[in-house]
Prior knowledge:
It is a single chain. The chain is an alpha/beta fold. It has one domain: 3-Layer(aba) Sandwich (Arginase, Chain A), CATH 3.40.800.10. 31% of the residues lie in helices and 19% in strands. The chain contains 6 helices and 5 strands, in the order αβαβαβαβαβα. β4, α5 (140-148) and β5 (154-161) form a beta-alpha-beta unit. α1 packs parallel to α2 and α5 runs parallel beside α6. The radius of gyration is 15 Å and the shape is globular. It starts with 6 loop residues before the first helix and ends in a 7-residue tail after the last helix. The relative contact order is 0.18.
Amino acid sequence: GGDHTITYPILQAVAEKHGPMGLVHVDAHTDTGDRALGEKIYHGTPFRRCVEEGLLDCSRVVQIGIRGSSYDPDPYKYCWDQGFRVVPAEECWGKSLVPLMGEVRKQMGDKPVYISFDIDGLDPAYAPGTGTPEIAGLTPGQALEIIRGCKGLNIVGCDLVEVAPMYDVSGNTALLGANLLFEMLCILPRVKT
């Protein structure tokens, strides 16, 4: 729950125990902006703040499903400059993400990994209840492939953010979010499924 700002203090706490970590980040946006309305901390800046504080092992950051609007004419430049792997949504269209997750597993290795899943990574046809929907996103099946593809990694935490039930009269977004969180719980280390 909450907006993506909540990931920043969570990663501060997790990094205090585990050091810089890898990140599997599913989102429509990179969330690496510098500021909005004069503020440095908001839902579009958490991962820039995390980079600045050394909370992330930037060689082990992958962002999946990125697309849509941006405040920057070159929205991926900051991420690429840090060494992030950016997987735009169009590279995911119409195919299984199992091969991608095999690559991600190799990239993450056995070091600590955090999963941050913004519900707007999914297409609003499936998850309209979010504050910043962007068309042409991932499917629920692809979301499951991403999460299940993380099983066996050294996961030290995870979140699912940006669900806004008041924007979805059907309740599908909340249902999808709850199911994705359940899937995340199932892949945590030492969980028997």
